[in-house]
Amino acid sequence: NQEIGINSIFKEEFLPNILSLIKEQLALHQEAESFDMSCVNVTENFFVDDDGIHWIYNPYEIAPYAVGNIEVVLPYSEIENYFKENTPIKSIL
Predict the structure, then answer these.
(1) How far is it, in rounded angstroms, from Cα 29 to Cα 36?
(2) Please, is 5 exposed, middle or buried when counting C-beta atoms within 10 Å of its C-beta (0-12, 13-18, 19+)?
(3) Cβ atoms < 10 Å from Cβ of 22
(4) What is the pLDDT of residues 23-42, one digit of tens each?
(5) How far apart are CA 38 and CA 62, in angstroms?
C-alpha cells in the first residue's frame, strides 16, 4: 500500500530502454498502425501486479479515441535488470 513513481523503480539512465520495450509491445498490438509513437513515453500512469508493470495510455494520448485505452505489460523478467536496488517493486518479486 505504497504509492510509487517511475523514478522510485528505475534508474534514470535506463528509461530509454524501458521506452524501447514499451514501443516494441505497442508495435505488436492489432491497432499499431493507429498509434503515434512520437507521443509514447514512460508515463506515470501504471500499476503493478504479479504479471509485471502495466502502462495505460488513455484515449487520444497515443491513438484515436476509437481505439480506447491501450495497455502495455512488461513482465518483470524483461525489466528487472533496470530496477533500482532499493525499489519497492523487488518486495513483490
Answers:
(1) 13
(2) exposed
(3) 22
(4) 999 999 989 999 999 999 99
(5) 8
Helices and strands per DSSP (H, E), number in the chain: 3, 3
Angle at 36 between CA 20 and CA 12, to 5 degrees: 30
Q: State pLDDT tens for residues 59-76.
A: 999 999 999 999 999 999
Reported pTM: 0.91
What span, in angstroms and rounded, lies between the C-alpha atoms of 50 and 32?
26
**Buried/exposed 26-65: b ≥16 CB within 10 Å, e otherwise:** beeeeeeeebeeeebbbeeebeeeeebbebebeeebbbee
Q: What is the dihedral of CA 46, 47, 53, 54, to 10 degrees?
A: -60
